[in-house]
Each structure stands twice: as structure tokens, then as C-alpha cells.
Amino acid sequence: MNVYDFDGTIYNGDSSIDFWLFCLKKKKSLVLYLPFQCLAFVLYSLRVFDKNGLKSAFFSFFKGIRCVDDFVNLFWNENENKIANWYQDVKRQDDCVISASPEFLLREICNRLNVSNLIATEVDELTGKVNGENCYADQKVVRWKQIFPKENPDCFYSDSKSDVPMALLAKKAFFVQKNVIRDWIF
Predict the structure, then answer these.
(1) Cα separation of 21 and 26, whole Å?
(2) 117 contacts 94 by C-beta, under 8 angstroms
(3) How high is the mean pLDDT in each 10-residue block of the chain (186 residues)?
(4) ∠ CA 70-71-72 to the nearest 5 degrees?
(5) 7: which of 39, 95, 100, 174 is 20 to 30 A away, CA to CA?
(6) Which residue range forms the structural domain that includes residue 29?
(7) What is the reported pTM?
(8) Distance in angstroms between the alpha carbons of the first and the last residue of the chain
(9) Rounded Cα–Cα distance for residues 43 and 54 (Å)
(10) Residue 67, burial from CB neighbour count under 10 angstroms (0-12, 13-18, 19+)
(11) DSSP string of 83-142?
């Protein structure tokens, strides 16, 4: 099974930020969440908030959206074209996407791409609260081992050095920068 990070790897951008901007464009009143989000970023910078606290604060804007799933579908209608062409050429149905982005946000695009395996951060669609651990860095390996305890990825692709733990788990790892794929050199 081949495993892919999502943002910056097979998606050209950051899906969480892009989704926030998309929602803000569609519903201007969401700007009211911006001061709280900025404060959370400051508190995270000061190490008062951990990454889960920051993400929960950032995604709190979900409270201002009546049906997040409708926004997710509209978002992917406009942004599906940001899936990297190279991935379109190599994708397989048994691929796995593993990401720190919200699971419910990526579920729709994985369905559209016919990707059957998704491991991502669990975020409550109504409150924006992160449930459990952020699926990031070492936590990706923890989550992988929970779901596939006897299997290691054949190949792993990522654009982030924070994914070294997953790269080390894979039989072969690739580093992706601006749609250029290179062997991962540790």
C-alpha cells in the first residue's frame, strides 16, 4: 500500500486554510471568529496552547456554519483541480492518505479520488474541537499502527520533514516539493 501526506504533497496548498478562506468568502460573518483564532495563535506561540488547542480554536468557525458538509462539497467542487497531476497518474484504490487535516474535510475528496483508506485528525464538525490527538508527526505512526498493525507502507510521500517517522516506517520514502518527487534522504 502506498501512503501519502495530503497538504503540500498531493494537494497543492493547505486544505484547512483554503477551506477557511472559502467559507469566509461564502459567509462573511465568519470573520467574527478571527480575533479568537489570532489570540489562539499567540497563545500557541507562547506555548500556552498545544497544537490541539490551536486547531480547536482555529476550527471554532464551524459553529457559524449550519451544514458544514454542504460547504465541504462546494469547496471540493472548486478545489478538486488542486490535486497534483502526478498523483492522478499513479493513484491506486488501496492508497492511504494520512494527514493532520480534518478527516471530514478529506473524506469527500478521498471518495472522489476512489481512495479507500484515510487517516486524519478527528474534528467535530459542529464545534471545531479536535477529538483525540492531532494526526501529525509521530502521531501518524501511532494511528497507522492502530489501523494496520502488521503492515508497513510500501511507499510514503510527503512534503514535510515532520513526517520523518512515517518515512522511516515505509519500505521506500519520497520527498515532494512543488510536484517534484525525490528519494527521501535522511
Answers:
(1) 9
(2) yes
(3) 97 98 97 96 95 95 95 98 95 95 97 96 96 96 97 97 97 96 93
(4) 90
(5) 39
(6) 2-183
(7) 0.94
(8) 22
(9) 8
(10) exposed
(11) B-HHHHHH--TT-EEEEEEEHHHHHHHHHHTT--EEEEEEE-TTT-PEES----THHHHH
C-alpha cell at position 124 = 467535530
Cβ atoms of residues 96 and 3 within 8 Å: yes
Count of domains observed in the chain: 1
Give the strand order in the sheet containing 117-123: 130-131, 117-123, 96-102, 2-4, 155-158, 172-177, 180-183
Q: Which of 59, 78, 56 is nearest to 68 (CA)?
A: 59
**155/133 Cα distance (integer angstroms):** 24
| The pLDDT of residue 114 | 95
Record the cell numbers describing residue 65, joined without a space: 456554519
Nearest to 79 by CA among 161, 1, 10, 168: 10
Parallel, antiparallel or unpaired: strands 172-177 and 96-102: unpaired
CATH label of the domain that carries residue 139: 3.40.50.1000
Query: Which pLDDT does position 23 carry in this prediction?
Result: 97
For 89, counting Cβ atoms within 10 Å of its Cβ (0-12 exposed, 13-18 middle, 19+ buried), the class is exposed
Residue bearing cell 497544537: 51
- Total residues found in the chain within this entry: 186
Q: How far apart are CA 50 and CA 154, in angstroms?
A: 32
Q: Are 39 and 45 in contact (CB under 8 A)?
A: no
